[in-house]
Amino acid sequence: MSLQGKHIVLGVTGGIAAYKSCVLASRLRKAGAVVHVIMTEHATRFVAPLTFETLTNQPVVSDLFARPSTWEVEHIALAKAADLFVIAPATANILAKMACGIADDMLSTTVLDTRAPVLAAPAMNTNMWTAEATQRNVETLRARGVHFVGPEGGFLACGDEGPGRMSEPETIFAAIKDLLREKRDLTGLRVLVTAGGTRERLDPVRYLGNESSGKMGFALAEAARARGAQVQLICGMTTAAEPAGIPIRRVDATRDLYEAMTELAPQADIVIQAAAPADYRFETEYPQKLKKQEGAPLTLTLVENPDVAAAVGRLKQPGQTLVGFAAETQALAENAAKKLDRKNLDLIVANDVTQPGAGFGVDTNIVTLITRDRSDQLPLLSKAEVAERILDRVMELRGQGE
Fold this sequence. Notes:
With 402 residues, this protein is an alpha/beta fold. Helices cover 34% and strands 23% of the residues. It contains 14 helices and 21 strands. An eight-stranded mixed sheet has the order 12-11-8-13-16-17-19-20, sandwiched between helices. The chain has a five-stranded parallel sheet with strand order 2-1-3-4-5, sandwiched between helices. A hairpin with a 2-residue loop joins strand 19 and strand 20 (374-377). Helix 1 runs parallel beside helix 3, helix 5 packs across helix 8 (132-143) and helix 10 (215-226) crosses helix 14. The longest helix has 15 residues, at 383-397. Mean pLDDT is 88; it is low at 70-75.
């Protein structure tokens, strides 16, 4: 998603995590956003304003009483200009000011005045984050519509370990994209997505698998989350970068995927099975590495794995929408239609993995969306765009599309 022309006010407060906000500001500008930085006095002790001015090509504002660069009062001008107001890092101090309506510096004054959505990325000592006063302030702000990303757990600059680390810039950037997205038609829906390939062990160093990277499943999870859904990912073996801010449950073999799906699928409103589970496994898994047999042939027996999609289809709940994938090399439409019926799916996404630009490991795909009464062949598209088209079709099936 491009942020071209979006005005984002980035509030930076006095915490060691302020250095991460430099990366965030750069990322936002590269996405096309106009970034206006407001720094508290204490923030300027951690990062020089010149750093942000260089990264954003905009003047940094910090002094409430400085002469404005335009005829408008500056804090009001910024409050009106903002499409989104981001505070990163958000210290316990700024959260307390926001909760109580205190406006005693440029940042607290501007955020009180804005009517744009506000996203806070807390960063503080673990004891400060868990303190009753801070948690009450967070509850108050959430009730007023303030959005939060993080904090994360881990080792803190003070030496403590626990919640309090500011989320990474990419995670905050993903949250920003979600908040600025206009289409939020999946709000309130629970979406379960599978991604990647499974692997069937022969011995401790060898396995049977496939070339699925997880890119299509990850694109679907990110698109669903951006459109307002509560998303859960189940992932096998993947090589693509994991989407930020989405809970992931890792599985290895197809039987692990089967157990996870039969547990979680009945709880979802929409289930999208983009993973590529292995259809077969070795009859025998050897505890030690198999050695060469001095030129003698090695015969291995394969047995069928359980059919995950069919099991999910048998467990289908009223009002639930099930989406499957069919990666084929021949008779695409015929084989996909059979799977649609046999596995009790509402929609199947079929692709011929032998076509250039389609299939495993690439950033594009060529798919056909097949339901019981319709077939739509899509041109070569990015997997992100394919994900959007799939979700559009899902919402049409649910009676909520255009």
